Amino acid sequence: MADCNHDCSSCGENCSTRDKKSLLKKPHEMSDIKKVIAVVSGKGGVGKSMTCALLAAAAQNSGKVTAVMDADITGPSIPRMFGVTERAMGSDNGILPVVTEGGVQVMSMNVLLENEAEPVVWRGSLISGTVLQFWTDVIWSGVDIMFIDMPPGTGDVPLTVFQSIPVDGIVVVTTPQDLVGMIVQKAVNMAQMMNIPILGIVENMSYIKCPDCGRKISVFGESNVDAIAMEYGIPNVAKLPIDQSLTKAADNGKIEEVENNYLTDFFNKIAKKIKA
Ligand code: ADP
After folding, report:
1. Atom 4 in ligand 1: which residue has the minimum CA distance?
2. Contact predicate 57/256, CB 8 Å
3. What is the pTM (predicted TM-score) of this model?
């Protein structure tokens, strides 16, 4: 623009030189968070939280100080998967995350509610405000890598989160029944708007393994996730089977102890990509 004064806060124009970081919020002054990965999906119930929890468990097992911010305010499942039952404590300085048995720092609506069965019936602005407080008011200590379990879809809450928190990369979770092409396209568009790379796609419920012969059976038919990842230049694809041991571990709050963390290699690859 000819009359650009390089002060984006004084201008509503969405030009190519617009300072995309201008809406970023500062974390709590006592926080230290090196890298942030957001886990997104097109809709609920596809295994976004499962993916987020397995990635966090893989990160923690690799020796990194790990945190999970559960931004899925109306459907928080991270505390249950990690077996967290206590409430978050506050100090004069801010709110302290709850720490799992394995050492992962967790903040979620469920560790703030007195009764975790209580539904959160809030409007979008209040929900995004709460997520931002998880960033600005919680004291995250010496975190190498934080995973954000995003609310599903591309509504105003995810948008606010992406505009306000400096996310280093995005992981997209889909299932074979999804319209994968469309979901990835939406995620790619959103990521481009925010200038954030998509680090990989996790295809959840990709197959089951026959308990007798070990053959992989694609219950929902063969997916085209590899071709789509290639089309959009997304560097990593992981395929997560339907595995009862994952459901059991998640239901019993033992996701950190799951015998086979299928996402360990995938985690190593995406961590390398963002130099985490
Ligand atoms: P989302 O976060 O997308 O809403 P969740 O991660 O909460 O979905 O998963 C929904 C349910 O499916 C949970 O009960 C979870 O334990 C289960 N689940 C997710 N992925 C798998 C899997 N690969 N194998 C077995 N159960 C799974």
Report:
1. 45
2. yes
3. 0.91
